[in-house]
Predict the structure.
Amino acid sequence: MTRTQIGRRLGVAMTTLAAAGCAVVLTAPYASATVDDLSVSTGNPQAGCTYQLTAKVNHWFEVWFYDNALVIPGSPVKPVNGVATVQWKPKKSGTHTLAALQGLAYEIKVNVAEPTLTGSATCGAGPLAWMGS
């Protein structure tokens, strides 16, 4: 092997090693960022109603929220005191896979019901909501 060939191979090896090192350095903080919990503000969500999703996180990085792999409007959210929240309004009934992503993802499955009544009672206000509280 000539000196030129050795030099090229050494140059390629060093470039590859440097690129790998940069990738590790740039992704290292995100690897430690995790979502520790994800919850919905109700146990019985209905299609067409708005609920709050709450993610408990361990880092200040933004949190992305997803419903069946689609970004929930309002994402990403900056956490405050280890908590990130977003408003979620499921459009359809059925099983929804909700996820919060901050470095690593945390997923839950939620069954969304069809609305049972019309008006404000549909979203949990109760059948006598029109009377006030």
